[in-house]
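Convert to structure. Protein one:
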Amino acid sequence: MDARFLTYLIVAAILIVTPGPDMALVARNAFRGGYPAARATAFGVGAGIFVWGAGTAAGLASALAASAALFSALKLAGAAFLVALGVRSLAGALRPDRRAATRPRSVAARRGPAPSGAFVQGLLGNLLNPKAGAIFVAVVPQFTAPGDPLGRLAAMTAAFVMMVIVWLNVYGLAVARASARFGGRLRRLLDAASGIVMMALGGRLALERR
C-alpha cells in the first residue's frame, strides 16, 4: 500500500461518514425494521457502489458526467425515490397503530421492510443518486496515474465498498439499538423525523446542479 492509496482511503473515509441519502435510508430502515433491515440496506448500498465502480472502469460514469440529460433524468428519479420513501415513513409514523399496545416491543418494532426489500432499497437508492457516480469520476482519478493497472482501480473500488458496508452496519446497529431501547412513541417520532429528512434530501437532490 503506497502513500497515494493511503491518502485515497482517508479521503474515502471522510466521504463515507459524511451524512447523506445512504445514511438516511439506513436509519429509516433501522427504525422500521431493526438491525436486519439496516444491515440489508447497507449491503444494498455496497452493491450499488460496486456497480458504480465497475461502471467507471467501463466508462459509463464518464458518459453520465458528460450527458446533462442523462444526469438530470437519473437525479430526478433518485429524488422521487427518496421522497416516496420519506412520505411512507412519515405516513407510517403518523398513522395510529391500535395493535401496537398488544404486541411485544420486539414484534412492534419490526414493521419495516423485509431484508430482501431493504437490500433493493439500498441498491436503488445508491444507483439513482448520480452524486455516487460523481465520486468515481471526480475523486478516484485524483489518486490514479497513467499506467496504473486495472487491478489498482479494482482494489480502490473494493476498499470503498468494504468501508461503506462496515460503516453503515455500525451506524445501522447503533440506530436500531437506540430505537429498540426506547418506547414506541419515541420510535414513531424518530421514524417521522427520518421521513422528513428523506424528503428534504430528495428535494435537495432534485434542485442540485451538476
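Protein two, convert as well:
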Amino acid sequence: MVADHVPLPAGRSTRPADLTPADVRWLSWHEARSHGLIGREVRDLGDAYLLYDPTDREPFWNRLVGVAWPSEPAAFDRRLTEVLALFAGLDRIPHVWPMPGFDEPPDLAERLLAQGFDDHGGGMFMVFDPDRAALDAAAPGLGDGGLVTIERLHRIAGPTAEAAVQGIAEVLVTAFGVEPERRVAIELEALQGLTTEAYHAVLVRIDGKPAAVARRTTFSGASYLSSIGTDPAFRGQGLGRLVTSIVVGDALRAGSRWIYLGVFQENDVAQRLYASLGFDAIGGVAPDLLLRP
C-alpha cells in the first residue's frame, strides 16, 4: 500500500523528550514521504515504511524505516526473510535505518548486524524544542561589507526557478563535496520540488554569489529540514545559523507541530549549531545498515 497520508499521532506535546515510539515512526514516515514527493514511492508495510525509487538504485533512496517487528526470534527471522525477498524483487540492496530507543525490537540493529548487515555510518535525529528556541534571523555583518540577500523560494517556475536551482546546486556541490556529475540530479530535484506545495528553500547570496542554502518540506503538521549547507568560501560568517533560523521560523509560522532534521554523527560543528538553536538529539546514534554483498 502506498503511504500518501498517515494520520498525525494524537499526542499534544511538541517537546522532544516526550516523543513516543508512535511519534517517531510517524516522523520516519514524514521524512520518507518528504523524499517521495517527486517520483519516489513510500509503501506502508504495516510494520515499517519502505522508501523506493523506481529509477535510482542509490541506497539512500531505497530504505526501510519506522520498523516495528516482532521480538520472538522465529517471527523476527520470518519477517526479515520476507523483507529481504521484497528488496530482491525490487532489485535493490536491503537497507534499514533503525531508530535506537524507538524501533522494535529494541535490539533491532544488533540482530541485523548478526544477520549480515554492515553499518555504513551513524546519524543523529534532532527535533526542535520550542521552549529552547534561540533563533537568529538577522543577516550577519560581513567584514568585507558584502551585500547579503535572502531569497525564499516556493512555487516558482521559468527563468526565476532555473536561476534558483542553479544557485542551490552550486552551494550543495561545494558544501558537501558532491561529485560534479551529481549536480544535474540536484538541480532536477530542486526544480521538481519547486512545483510542489510542500517544498520551500532559502538561498542566501553575498554580492550575488550563492553562499548558503536550507530546505524545508512542510506538510501534515510537520517540517523536515534538509540540504543545509554553506559554500566553504563563506564559512565562519554565521550563514548556516541564519538559514537554519529562517527555515525554523517559517516552519513555526506555518503551524508545524514538529520540526526535525538529520545530521551525520561525525559532524560535530553542525550538531552544536542545531543544539544552540533549540534542537535536541533523540534516540542516540542511528546506524545506516546495508546487507553485506
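Residues 16-124+287-291 form one domain. The first helix runs from residue 21 to 35.
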